[in-house]
Design goal:
Chain lengths: ~270, ~270, ~325
């Protein structure tokens, strides 16, 4: 455990990508965690006297076209975005891993059929798949979470299936099989722990894709409905005021970028682990 | 016999780690025209490093070289890159241990064989280049050279690929051919064929060959002179027959003792 | 050839599965399409008559067969809301979206390949480090935000184009292309960043391989080794990636069209989704899926032509 600490410390000092990844991610998490307990203003509180104000001490990120405090709305919106991204990845990972592991391990006819369906779903860019699901189940953040979660299943299933196929013929699995280990135990105790490295990196990438997809879809107006804030929707509202009041559009945008950047720096840093 | 290559005091050091690592120390080699010299030693003895240095292929930043490699009145260690390149592939060629990976997988055989001509002799027309490449492929023992010309490396066996490498190395009719463990990755029967091919090239074209191997018996079949290396140093050198009959260094004795012999009546070592 | 036929067959199977999924998705939703078309005040007799006319009383497989057959012949159904054939609504918008995706694809290739080579050649140097950090940052900017930034910088500050001043290709092709350049750039940027990173890694991997050393031994200079030997090998994984990127760009244009207020496919798609105009949504989704699947097929063929080790046989 101590050597683990040491390695993190060493990387924080020497691994630039890892250091900045940590710093940025902590900043974003701070924004969200602080927002759970305290926000400068009520995110939905309008104030007709303070419309479209620039950056000031009273409003560190300015105000929007209804006089609402942008910082408070960004705090609330980041929370939703992170929540949806985490939920998406959770659904994608759990369902994808189960489907991928079972089809990869057992193979056969069922594998053929499920893989054809996965291939077909894979042909849909995830944003499109989410649009189909939302158009069927209606608009709202829970629907969006479900839609993105389902849209992320095929890629995880494919990765896990490939890895399980690779592991299935390895000596240690053969050996366990000879010792009479049950299929269920084989998959979940012997094989899956061995592919956690691949899974971890797909989770990091998946998380970023989920943040980007959530932002894109809420920009299109699918997701949290007004008056509740979401980062993407704020951008689409702010767009028409961007020349007169750039802080309104830039602040939420930069928060999205930092959110993704923090995780991708972390991922890059881990891949260059010293 | 005219000396065409004179290596003196070659010294190569790596700086990959905190402590500098000596790969080759005080290496000397004189190569006469039409001569075949063998360099023997186990892996890590510095034999391949010396060969790569002569071929001008040691260009890493974390590495220092000193000494002299005189060829054609030029010191290959210190001359500018352009001058060095004008010799590479035209006057000095090299073939490697792994014929599987030493050829470019996405280019046709013919293209790779004639590349040296394309680089060094732009005056030769495309059609002439092709003719010479096909001819060369035939002379290294590839039947059906016309077809091989249009094939890709993955369509050939290991032995055939090494023949292609030799054809590509020999197309410019170089003065020196460096063969860096050319047979290690091949079957025993193919090994013998490649050694025969090198002999034939030496005989017909009077090409000098530096043959690097860890296999002393192979070296004794091919070379007139041999250099034995260990830990970056030359421990013994001289005529092949002398070294075999009167090895002076313990390491050489061990190498000789390690050559497998066929002992009839003793089945223990055979399957 | 055998391979192409096999892949072609697989592609048709995938397309059929997609069509079944799409059809089922939109036909198991509660709600009566006839009622939607006529409005809630229609008499039950009229609704029943319309249901009969629309063939809604037939069993699901029959309806699927009819829908698929119509689709293959270019009959994409009738819009619930506008009561006109979907084809007429969509067909004139297709060139806009496709032009944008293709331009974004070309931009990606034109920018990322030289940049990838540049960073790889200066590996470890200052230029490489600056470009790699920039690359990570660009990768993290969602296309719609880079679209907004492009509008702000090129449209409002530099005045290189008029935001919102889209000109259709039927009016002036030159202006049409010029306006679409900026949204295409926004779509291309994250893909450029990913391709640069990938090509750089692939070039560095390949230049460590034995054949690169062989190339040097023949007297090639660094450029010779890079362009004559390494580049083609390094492009093999990049081609697969670019194919997937092209498919993604078609979908990415949905968001970008909104940013630059371009009246392409995406506007119809978004309105139809909020109006629950399912035949339109169905047709557009199927269309995009068809493009994506065909692109994947093409990429596979190109990949096999570039890499002789795999070949078109087997």
């Amino acid at each position: 455990m101590n050597s683990y600490k040491k390695a993190i410390h060493k990387n924080f000092k020497e691994n630039t990508f890892f250091r900045w990844g940590c710093i940025i991610t902590v900043l974003i998490l701070l924004l969200v965690v602080v927002g759970l307990f305290w926000m400068p203003y009520e995110p939905t509180a309008m104030n007709a006297a303070e419309k479209l104000k620039g950056i000031s001490l009273r409003h560190p990120m300015g105000t929007d076209n209804m006089g609402r405090d942008v910082l408070s709305r960004v705090m609330y919106g980041s929370r939703i975005t992170l929540l949806i991204a985490a939920g998406t990845v959770a659904i994608g990972t759990v369902a994808g891993t189960i489907i991928g592991a079972l089809t990869g391990y057992f193979g056969g006819m069922l594998d053929e059929i499920i893989m054809r369906i996965i291939d077909a779903l894979f042909a849909f860019p995830s944003i499109l798949l989410a649009l189909v699901i939302v158009s069927i189940f209606g608009i709202g953040w829970i629907q969006l979470l479900l839609a993105l979660g389902i849209a992320f299943v095929p890629s995880f299933a494919r990765i896990v299936r490939g890895e399980v196929l690779r592991c299935r013929n390895m000596d240690y699995v053969e050996n366990a099989r000879l010792q009479g280990v049950s299929d269920f135990r084989m998959i979940f105790v012997h094989i899956l722990p061995n592919i956690r490295g691949v899974l971890m990196s797909s989770i990091l990438i998946g998380f970023n894709n989920a943040v980007l997809a959530e932002a894109g879809l809420s920009y299109l107006g699918i997701g949290s409905q007004p008056p509740y804030a979401s980062l993407g929707k704020m951008l689409s509202d702010a767009q028409q005021y961007m020349f007169g009041n750039p802080s309104y559009v830039l602040c939420p945008g930069i928060v999205i970028v930092l959110m993704v950047l923090g995780f991708s720096f972390l991922g890059e840093g881990i891949s260059r682990w010293k | 016999m005219e000396i065409i290559l004179d290596v003196t005091d070659l010294h190569i050091e790596f700086h990959d780690h905190d402590q500098p690592e000596v790969a080759v120390e005080d290496f000397d080699l004189m190569l006469g025209e039409g001569e075949i010299v063998g360099i023997v030693g186990e892996s890590g003895s510095g034999k391949s490093m010396s060969a790569l240095a002569i071929a001008g292929l040691l260009n890493r930043k974390s590495l220092t070289k000193s000494g002299r490699i005189m060829f054609d009145g030029t010191d290959l260690l210190t001359c500018d890159r352009k001058k060095l390149r004008s010799y590479q592939g035209d006057e000095i060629s090299i073939i490697f241990q792994e014929p599987m990976t030493s050829l470019n997988p996405v280019k046709r055989i013919g293209w790779q064989v004639e590349e040296s001509l394309y680089i060094h002799h732009r005056e030769i027309s495309k059609e002439d280049r092709r003719k010479r490449a096909v001819e060369m492929l035939g002379s290294v023992g590839l039947a059906d050279a016309e077809n091989v010309y249009y094939m890709y490396p993955h369509e050939l066996s290991g032995g055939m690929r090494q023949r292609v490498m030799i054809a590509a190395a020999m197309i410019g009719n170089p003065k020196i051919l460096i063969a860096d463990e050319p047979t290690t990755a091949l079957d025993v029967t193919v090994q013998a064929q490649i050694v025969e091919l090198l002999k034939k090239i030496n005989r017909e074209r009077n090409t000098s060959i530096i043959f690097i191997s860890h296999d002393l018996s192979l070296v004794s079949q091919l070379c007139q002179r041999v250099i034995v290396m260990q830990h970056g140093n030359i421990v013994e050198s001289g005529r092949c027959s002398d070294i075999f009959s009167r090895p002076r260094h313990l390491y050489t004795k061990r190498l000789i003792a390690a050559i497998p012999r066929i002992d009839l009546g003793d089945d223990k070592d055979r399957r | 050839m055998k391979y192409i036929i096999k892949k072609l067959f697989m592609m048709i199977v995938t397309l059929l599965v997609v069509s079944i999924c799409v059809f089922l998705a939109f036909n198991i939703i509660p709600g009566d399409p006839a009622l939607r078309m006529l409005g809630t005040e229609a008499s039950p007799e009229l609704v029943e008559q319309t249901r009969q006319e629309m063939g809604l009383n037939d069993p699901l497989p029959v309806r699927y067969g009819r829908w698929l057959f119509g689709f293959v012949q270019g009959d994409f159904g009738t819009s619930y809301n506008y009561k006109i054939p979907v084809k007429d609504m969509v067909i004139s918008k297709v060139p806009i979206t496709l032009t944008m995706a293709v331009m974004a694809f070309l931009l990606t290739i034109l920018i990322s390949i030289p940049l990838g080579i540049l960073t790889a050649r200066h590996e470890g140097g200052l230029l490489d480090r600056i470009l790699m950090v920039t690359d990570q940052i660009v990768m993290s900017i969602p296309p719609f935000f880079s679209g907004i930034l492009i509008t702000l910088i090129f449209g409002m500050v530099l005045r290189l184009f008029t935001p919102g001043g889209f000109t259709n290709y039927t009016v002036d092709v030159g202006k049409f292309i010029r306006y679409l350049f900026f949204p295409s750039l926004a779509i291309a940027l994250p893909k450029v960043a990913m391709t640069v990173k990938m090509l750089r890694g692939s070039l560095l991997d390949e230049s460590m391989k034995d054949y690169a050393r062989t190339a040097y031994s023949r007297g090639n200079n660094t450029n010779g080794v890079l362009y004559r030997h390494v580049l083609k090998n390094a492009m093999i994984p990049v081609i697969t990636f670019l194919g997937m990127a092209l498919a993604d760009m078609v979908a990415g244009s949905i968001v970008i069209e909104q940013v630059f207020s371009i009246p392409g496919i995406s506007r119809i798609l978004m309105t139809s989704i909020s109006n629950r105009d399912y035949p339109v949504v169905e047709a557009i989704i199927m269309g995009i899926a068809m493009i994506v699947i065909s692109v994947n097929f093409l990429v596979d063929v190109v990949y096999r032509i570039v890499d002789p080790r795999i070949g078109l046989e087997e």
